[in-house]
């Protein structure tokens, strides 16, 4: 059973396969170091022709093959990086396992129906030691075995992966065979394609198998080794139908025709006609039959193709397992050289992409101390930013966002508020000139001297006016706090976006705080309104000056109304006013005029007070917010969340944690892959 290729390799006639292909052309034109390393000098005789050359060929290709196999073991395919792979496909019982057995010269499980139920990655390696080394790798473990037990070991492993029944799985099983004289080849054996489920197989077995086969043969990097029994019409093979779906021109398909011994008639014509577009050519073989030794099988094969009247007519460059081995090695070397730069590029690209994505992710925190540090730091940043934009009017952090230029925006709102107060109906003293005053005086009639001006009349007018403008005050504070709320939230979001747990707490604290601050302001405004309604007072001398100035026109006004010369009159401080309707209220005119002038002089004072107080109040509130309340509220919120159990703040959303795990896994894998690559690159440049 210690069959070695070296013994069977016959000198080739120097021709390549009977058909040229893109791969062979690539193979001729590629000039990279790497290519030279794996393929050697094209002018040299094909290495497999002689024992030392075969061995040097193996030596040259092995580092790259090892690297690709390492990448395959790392499952870089999971990261969407396709590796050059020779994929063995064929209909059930077409002889796939037999071909692999012949190449590996070991026994694989064989039997009726479906034997290969999982993708079997076969890594054949030449071994300098004469003692073969065989092991299986699956589910993260390695199982040592030997030639006598490998078939059973594969069956046991298959059961572990795909269950005891006849079901299949796409989780691969790797079989490593290190044996003296083996070609360095890695191939994937796939479950045989069957249309009809056998007893115990799921109804959709065809779809399941087809999906696995497609997954492996679809990538452009895959070479399809299509196993076709000589006995059938190739055009009817399911495996041909499938490979032609993904490789229309057949440029990456190689056909192995098995059972040449069973159906020699017309085989030469079949492979010459090439009805099914096999770009990489045909190799006709005869596998081991029954309990033949591999040595015997190869001798029988060589004998068959040399002596059989029909089969001997087939060109020797396309018959026999050794030729197949040689072809596969060449193809493998070529796709390796072709795909290598792309693999290197892709691994780096994916690695950088994943690292960048991980960096963009929220920071994970592993201890309460770490969390609290981040928390305090973030609160510090938020406070500093707010102090800058709310208090100091510095907006270097948001140079282009006008909405964040807070001091200027608040000043604008403030000017509007002030204008609204000055322009509202309550501040228009010419409207219904003296009529409000006359009404109030009429209702204040009493049995008393007529020229007393009851203070209550003034207060009731004042109350009505203050009430009339109060909505402007409330409206203004609502507007300013809505603006502040937006601002505070966006500043705190900005500083916490990488810390979801901190963000959550801070956001809630800010929302609560802003509600509180707004309520405080509203309470304050209510109080101001109450105060203005309750008392008419000012120490400002402007009031008396103004009143005296206005009162100096009283007599002129009364005279004017009495003379009834015109219905309009110009009064200093008011402009033109309507007086036509005032004649009938002559007895009240003097008091009404006085009342009006007091109110006019006093209202100016009231408005100024409403504007000034508001300004001072806002400044104080903002200062309190930044200096005291924000920190207090966030800490209260933090301690109140989860009953103060800070450990719970460390928990991430499952989706975030899963994403982080996935990225970390990918990064680790890709880093390992990159190490594999840099190792091989060192070898290449050496
Ligand atoms: P698979 O289902 O495609 O893996 O096919 P197997 O390798 O299990 O082969 C199916 C049957 O065909 C087995 O009984 C093999 O012994 C037989 N067989 C495979 N290759 C040859 C061959 O070249 N000649 C002969 N006579 N029988 C073969
Ligand atoms: Mg099989």
UniProtKB/TrEMBL annotation:
Residues 1-21 are annotated as: Disordered. One of its GO terms (cellular component) is microtubule. Residues 7-19 have a biased composition (Basic residues). CDD domains: DLP_1. InterPro entries: Dynamin, Dynamin_GTPase, Dynamin_N, Dynamin_stalk, G_DYNAMIN_dom, GED, GED_dom, P-loop_NTPase. It comes from Salix brachista. The keyword Nucleotide-binding applies. This is Dynamin-type G domain-containing protein. Gene3D superfamilies: Dynamin, middle domain (1.20.120.1240), P-loop containing nucleotide triphosphate hydrolases (3.40.50.300). Residues 592-685 form the GED domain. The keyword Thylakoid does not apply. Residues 80-341 form the Dynamin-type G domain. It comes from the Eukaryota.
């Amino acid at each position: 059973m210690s069959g070695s290729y070296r013994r069977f390799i016959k000198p080739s006639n120097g021709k390549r396969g009977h058909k040229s292909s893109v791969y062979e052309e690539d193979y001729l034109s590629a000039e990279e170091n790497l290519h030279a390393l794996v393929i050697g000098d094209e002018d040299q005789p094909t290495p497999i022709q002689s024992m030392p050359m075969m061995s040097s060929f193996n030596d040259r290709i092995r580092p790259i093959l090892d690297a690709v196999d390492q990448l395959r073991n790392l499952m870089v395919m999971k990261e969407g990086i396709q590796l050059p792979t020779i994929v063995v496909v064929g209909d059930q019982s077409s002889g796939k396992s037999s071909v692999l057995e012949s190449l590996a010269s070991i026994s694989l499980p064989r039997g009726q129906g479906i034997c290969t139920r999982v993708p079997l990655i076969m890594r054949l390696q030449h071994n300098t030691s004469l003692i073969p080394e065989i092991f299986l790798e699956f589910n993260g473990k390695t199982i040592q075995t030997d030639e006598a037990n490998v078939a059973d070991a594969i069956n046991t492993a298959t059961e572990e992966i795909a269950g005891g029944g006849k079901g299949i799985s796409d989780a691969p099983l790797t079989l490593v065979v290190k044996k003296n004289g083996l070609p360095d080849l890695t191939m994937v054996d796939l479950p045989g394609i069957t249309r009809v489920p056998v007893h115990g197989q799921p109804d959709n077995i065809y779809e399941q198998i087809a999906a696995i086969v497609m997954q492996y043969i679809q990538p452009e990097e895959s070479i399809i080794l299509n196993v076709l029994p000589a006995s059938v019409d190739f055009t009817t093979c399911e495996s041909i139908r499938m490979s032609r779906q993904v490789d229309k021109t057949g440029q990456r398909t190689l056909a192995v025709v098995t059972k040449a011994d069973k159906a020699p008639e017309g085989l030469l014509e079949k492979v010459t006609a090439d009805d099914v577009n096999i770009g990489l050519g045909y190799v006709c073989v005869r596998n081991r039959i029954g309990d033949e030794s591999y040595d015997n099988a190869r001798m029988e094969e060589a004998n068959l193709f040399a002596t059989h009247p029909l089969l001997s007519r087939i060109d020797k460059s396309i018959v026999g397992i050794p030729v197949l081995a040689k072809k596969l090695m060449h193809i493998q070397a070529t796709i390796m050289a072709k795909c290598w730069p792309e693999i290197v590029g892709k691994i780096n690209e994916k690695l950088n992409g994943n690292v960048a994505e991980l960096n963009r992710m929220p920071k994970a925190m592993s201890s309460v101390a770490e969390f609290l540090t981040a928390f305090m730091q973030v609160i510090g940043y938020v406070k500093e930013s707010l102090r800058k934009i709310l208090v100091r009017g510095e907006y270097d952090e948001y140079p282009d966002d006008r909405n964040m230029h807070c001091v200027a925006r608040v000043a604008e709102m403030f000017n509007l508020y002030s204008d609204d107060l000055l322009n509202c109906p309550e501040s228009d003293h010419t409207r219904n000139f003296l009529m409000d005053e006359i009404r109030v005086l009429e209702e204040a009639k009493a049995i008393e001297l007529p020229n007393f001006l009851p203070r209550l009349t003034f207060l009731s007018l004042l109350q009505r006016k203050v009430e009339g403008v109060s909505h402007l005050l409330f409206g203004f504070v609502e507007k300013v706090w809505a603006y502040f709320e937006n601002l505070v939230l966006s500043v705190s979001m900005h500083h916490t976006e990488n810390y979801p747990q901190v963000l959550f707490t801070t956001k809630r604290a800010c929302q609560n705080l802003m509600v509180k601050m707004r309520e405080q302001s509203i309470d304050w405004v209510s109080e101001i309104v109450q105060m203005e309604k309750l008392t008419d007072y000012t120490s400002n001398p402007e009031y008396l000056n103004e009143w005296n100035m206005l009162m100096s026109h009283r007599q002129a006004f009364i005279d004017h109304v009495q003379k009834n010369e015109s219905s309009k009159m110009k009064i200093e401080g008011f402009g033109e006013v309507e007086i036509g309707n005032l004649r009938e209220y002559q007895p009240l005119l003097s008091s009404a005029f006085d009342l009006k002038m007091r109110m006019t002089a006093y209202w100016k004072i009231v408005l100024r007070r409403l504007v000034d107080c508001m300004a001072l109040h806002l400044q104080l509130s903002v200062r309190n917010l930044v200096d005291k309340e924000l920190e207090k509220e966030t800490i209260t919120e933090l301690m109140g969340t989860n009953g103060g159990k800070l450990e719970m703040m460390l928990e991430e959303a499952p989706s975030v944690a899963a994403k982080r795990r996935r990225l970390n896994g990918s990064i680790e894998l890709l880093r390992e892959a990159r190490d594999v690559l840099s190792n091989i690159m060192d070898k290449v440049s050496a």
